[in-house]
Design goal:
This protein has helices at about 1-20, 25-50, 55-75, 75-85, 90-100, 105-120, 125-150, 180-195, 200-220, 225-250; strands at about 265-270, 270-279. The longest helix is centred in the middle third of the chain and has 28 residues, at about 125-150. The protein is built from ten helices and two strands; from the N terminus they run ααααααααααββ. Helix 5 (about 90-100) crosses helix 9, helix 7 runs antiparallel to helix 8 (about 180-195) and helix 7 (about 125-150) packs antiparallel against helix 10 (about 225-250). A two-stranded antiparallel sheet has the order 1-2.
């Protein structure tokens, strides 16, 4: 429940910050805050309700994601053996970044900082980015906390193989909470949402790379199997895109005013599976 505590604490701190109003001018700040807070929770609800509105391509993509994840399950042990061969060669700086950046407390420090900067500088685009970051992190964070308890997959560090499960617990069972990866989901959600601020595909790819490091580190350090991270990364893209579309109807500042120059597609076929990026 640690991540859920950070979520509640974060919103409490945000509320206290915005309540410090002394003048009529700051009344607008409070109104903006309450409007944004409603959109944060509205975005979470919108993301969770999307499966009820899926059509043919949406079900196909979900099928591809599920099929690809199941196929990766079959090679998780081999990938883990491979990463064991170079674990000691990974620089400590990379390991520290990977573990710290994807943690809930650091995630909400970053997302909250972005939002508050936009709120107090009256920058709607930055406000919207903060709302997108917080809403995506909250939707993904709550989903992965619930999923860990339901699925109960053993972590590599437990010593069990990748097909070992202890499911259906109200509380997380130590070393049996591998799937999905919260660090990978939070880190890549942030990177993907921030990348929407930029038009250059090279800047986007650079941010995606930085957002992928925590997932890589969690695999290398035996906290997660590769399929945990792959599934979480793709799911974070779906969550951010869904909430971003919802926010299009709430703010004048939009990221989707022109046709997308960067697109993600799931690929699945003989001897191939994965996510392709086109720009």
């Amino acid at each position: 429940m640690k991540s859920l505590k950070y979520i509640f604490l974060f919103f409490a701190v945000l509320s206290l910050s915005a309540q410090d109003v002394k003048s009529p001018k700051q009344d607008k700040l409070w109104n903006n805050f309450t409007y944004d807070l409603g959109n944060i929770f509205g975005g979470v609800g919108y993301a969770y309700s999307r499966p009820l509105h899926w059509q043919g391509n949406d079900f196909a993509n979900f099928g591809y994601l599920t099929g690809s994840t199941l196929l990766l399950f079959t090679v998780d042990d081999e990938i883990n053996d491979w990463t064991n061969g170079f674990r000691e060669d990974v620089p400590n700086l990379v390991l520290d970044y990977g573990h710290e950046y994807g943690s809930p407390e650091n995630n909400y420090m970053l997302t909250g900082g972005v939002y508050l900067a936009g709120l107090f500088t009256k920058n709607e685009k930055l406000r919207r980015t903060g709302v997108l970051l917080i809403s995506s992190a909250t939707a993904g964070g709550f989903l992965q906390q619930v999923s860990k308890r339901i699925i109960g997959r053993a972590r590599p560090k437990s010593g069990a193989n990748s097909s070992t499960f202890d499911p259906l617990h109200l509380d997380r069972v130590y070393n049996y909470d591998s799937f999905p990866s919260g660090h990978a989901m939070l880190a890549f959600s942030n990177a993907y949402a921030i990348a929407k601020q930029f038009k250059s595909p090279w800047v986007k790819v650079g941010l995606y790379t930085l957002g992928s490091i925590p997932g890589f580190v969690r695999v290398v350090d035996n906290f997660h199997w590769f399929s945990d991270v792959a599934f979480s990364t793709v799911l974070s893209i779906f969550i951010v895109e869904s909430i971003d579309r919802y926010l299009d109807s709430k703010y004048d500042e939009k990221y989707n005013q022109t046709a997308k120059k960067v697109s993600w597609n799931l690929s699945f076929g003989p001897n191939t599976m994965g996510v392709s990026l086109r720009f």
